[in-house]
Amino acid sequence: MSNPMTAKRVDKSGAARAHARAEPVRQSSAERVRHLLAEEIVSGRLAPGTRLEEQSLADRFQVSRTPVREAVRQLDAAGLVMVRPRKGVIVTEIDVDMLQELFEALASVEYLLARFAAQRMSNMERLRLRQIHEACGVAHENRDYDTYAELNHDFHSVIYHGARNRHLHSIAEGLRLRLRPYRSTSFRTGGRMDSSMREHGEIVQAILDEDPEAAGQALRAHIDGSSANAMRYYLEHRAASGDAGSVRDRQHQEGA
């Protein structure tokens, strides 16, 4: 159990602020290719069924084939492309119902992780959570979307580790991997980064207060907000690209 004198308040000391300076994230070649392709797939600029040639992608992004291969592996794990023997890499049709189910599963798992983290986090982990939150604030002020997205990943990872439950941690990481393309692109739209920053503050305070229920509810609401924004981004960009998608896609769009 943490010392309430050191863990209950958000520390604004010079040491914490020094750690909170957000440096621009330097993406690897594979991460850059993955991010750009994911954005094109989610937005509909790369239509379902499009075949992706490894050498063509390497030429386009001015990288070797190795980072392209790694980017494709990550996109395959996220369900955005399919790797078919003798047929190559194909852009998949995104199922809106499946996307909604993934967000619902993540919200439920992270609710439990936040509850456990509020009870089990060490003082050092609470300090690290505060530092990441402050660094998110710097990225937010600078409107540095890429750095904010990376820090957001770190923010959730600290909570996962602090929960001390390896099985829930593994499930959450798998879900976040599949949803990462949708979450990272949505920070640029609908004021999502602003609301995310506010929600992070509520999560941090609940964990520092060692209030499991408040922490769980705050994190569940955070994922629900991310889900609503990501779904809206997906549907709007699919409509703008002229790709109406499946019947279920259209039904969701009409009911949104």
Tell me about this structure.
By secondary structure, the protein is mainly alpha-helical. The chain folds into two domains: 63 residues, Arc Repressor Mutant, subunit A (Orthogonal Bundle), CATH 1.10.10.10; 160 residues, Four Helix Bundle (Hemerythrin (Met), subunit A), CATH 1.20.120. 72% of the residues lie in helices and 4% in strands. It contains twelve helices and three strands. Strands 1-3-2 form a three-stranded antiparallel sheet. The longest helix has 29 residues.
Give the name of the CATH superfamily of the largest domain.
GntR ligand-binding domain-like
Query: How are the strands of the largest sheet arranged?
Result: 1-3-2
Helix content: over 70%
Shape: elongated
- CATH topology annotation of the largest domain: Four Helix Bundle (Hemerythrin (Met), subunit A)
The proportion of strand residues reads under 5%
Distance between the termini: 44 Å
At a glance:
The chain folds into two domains: 29-91, Orthogonal Bundle (Arc Repressor Mutant, subunit A), CATH 1.10.10; 96-255, Up-down Bundle (Four Helix Bundle (Hemerythrin (Met), subunit A)), CATH 1.20.120.530.
Please supply descriptive tags for the structure shown above.
single chain, 256 residues, mainly alpha, Arc Repressor Mutant, subunit A, Four Helix Bundle (Hemerythrin (Met), subunit A), three-stranded antiparallel beta sheet, 12 helices, 3 strands, 72% helix, 4% strand, elongated, disordered N terminus
Helix-strand blueprint:
Layout (H helix, E strand, L loop, with lengths): L3 H4 L6 H6 L9 H15 L7 E2 L1 H8 L3 H13 L3 E4 L3 E4 L4 H25 L2 H19 L3 H19 L2 H21 L5 H17 L3 H29 L6 H9 L1
Antiparallel strand pairs: 1-3, 2-3
Helix pairs in contact: 3-5, 4-5, 6-8, 6-9, 6-10, 6-11, 7-8, 7-10, 8-9, 9-11, 10-11
